[in-house]
User: Which sequence fits this backbone?
């Protein structure tokens, strides 16, 4: 990609931050067929900890390290 116009057309959704919520958002949009880019600064910390570790729910079992 050589200019910003090409970059803008490459993805439908860009998610900044690969925390728990970012991963869930990227997964949801990708499953809907969107061309999704997930950006993070540290690959070792992807979905490292949910916002509130005391909260469970169906998504808690979906992400594994």
Assistant:
């Amino acid at each position: 990609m050589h200019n910003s116009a090409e970059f803008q057309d490459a993805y439908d959704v860009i998610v900044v931050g690969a925390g728990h919520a970012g991963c869930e958002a990227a997964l949801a949009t990708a499953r809907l067929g969107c061309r999704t880019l997930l950006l993070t600064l540290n690959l070792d910390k992807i979905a490292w900890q949910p916002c509130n570790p005391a909260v469970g729910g169906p998504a808690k079992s979906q992400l594994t390290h």
Summary: The first helix runs from residue 4 to 10. Residues 1 and 7 are 6 Å apart (CA to CA). Residues 4-49 form one domain. The chain is about 30% helix and 10% strand.
